[in-house]
Amino acid sequence: MSQATPAALGRGLGRSLALATIMGMLIFGVAMGLMIYFTEDGETCDVAGEIEDPPLEIIKQTSLAFAFAVPFGLSLAILIARGLTHRTTERLDTVISSASSMTGERLDDRLPVSPAHDALDKLSDAINGVLERIERGVEAQAQFAADASHELRTPLTVITTNLEVARRKAREPGHWEHVADDALAEVKRMGVLVDKLLELSRAGAAGLRHTSIELRKLSTAALGRASPLAIERGVNLALASGAPLTAVVDVDALGIVLDNLLRNAIDHSPKDSTVTITVQSHAEHPQIVVADQGPGVLPELRERIFEPFARAATRIDRATGPGLGLGLAICRRIVTGHRGTIVCTEASGGGAVFTVALPTA
């Protein structure tokens, strides 16, 4: 496409110039014919019996035709050529101006495309396609950086809390080995988180690797990871009783969802309250429900909190912990990749309820 387009554009300009030249020649021919007609019509020989010299007469007539046709025909040919090529050159100037004004700060800028859909428009479409792919790549990198920095908070918090608690008094060597094992497990989990977020940023839902998992087991593991933060905040964690329930999900990705929901619930729960995870089936769809006993979420904000940076955009005063409001946006992106849904409602006794509905196995 990129090689054929300039050639096609050149052919278009060449056709315009050729047409203008032909028009000039036609004008000259018409002027020549008119000149001969008017000079010969009714002309008689000045001297009786004298024969006119045809070559001299032709030269004379041609000179008169040239004197009349050349300035007029040349001017008209230039005007026609300018009119035929002006539209193309004007659009070229517009494209060049648009390309020159593009900067790295505004990756959503595109080259203009006219309704003509000619060779220049095809070239602009091809360049716009490249710009769009570049924009998606930069957005994926920015998303990965934001998501990774957000998700690494939880394992770092666990490591920091465990070390701070262990240093409060003298410990036996065996206890330090246990602390080191916990820290090593969290470091390994940080590596898994980074790998999974990188896959999601590059491939979206195609980066999810589905396996069969018992959801109560997955929830128990998430509660264990959130336990240090809950102890620090004085919040209780509980897994509601229920029957085992299996779903086909990406274990690491859904673990990110549960970690975010639990951290969000702990951040917004008062001391001595309880955050509960319930695994249930509704209309044959597996569900994981995370409920807290905090102030809840205003109805008009229950959809907007799933948008990136919603905390800053909506000035949510419900948040007590640090953050930019990326956690719930990450949750929705992962759940949507599973072809599921995540919604926020209000508990009957107050507090927020986040329900993750997954497709059937």
CATH fold descriptor of the largest domain = Heat Shock Protein 90
* Low-confidence spans: 1-5, 312-324
Helix content: 55-70%
Q: Please indicate the percent range of residues in DSSP E strands (runs of 2 or more).
A: 5-15%
Descriptive overview:
The chain is an alpha+beta fold. It folds into two domains: 4-134, no CATH class; 208-357, Heat Shock Protein 90, CATH 3.30.565. It contains nine helices and seven strands; from the N terminus they run H-H-H-H-H-E-H-E-E-H-E-E-H-H-E-E. The two termini are 45 Å apart. Residues 1-5 and 312-324 have low confidence and may be disordered.
List the helices and strands and how they pair.
Blueprint: H1 4-40, H2 54-101, H3 119-151, H4 153-166, H5 173-203, E1 211-214, H6 215-233, E2 236-239, E3 246-249, H7 251-267, E4 274-282, E5 285-291, H8 310-314, H9 327-337, E6 341-346, E7 352-357
Parallel strand pairs: 2-4
Antiparallel strand pairs: 1-3, 4-5, 5-7, 6-7
Helix pairs in contact: 1-2, 1-3, 3-5, 4-5, 4-6, 6-7, 7-9
Sum up the structure in keywords.
alpha+beta; Heat Shock Protein 90; 5-stranded mixed β-sheet; 9 helices; 60% helix; 11% strand; rod-shaped
Nutshell version of this structure?
Helices cover 60% and strands 11% of the residues. The protein is an alpha+beta fold and 361 residues long. The protein has two domains: 4-134, no CATH class; 208-357, Heat Shock Protein 90, CATH 3.30.565.10.
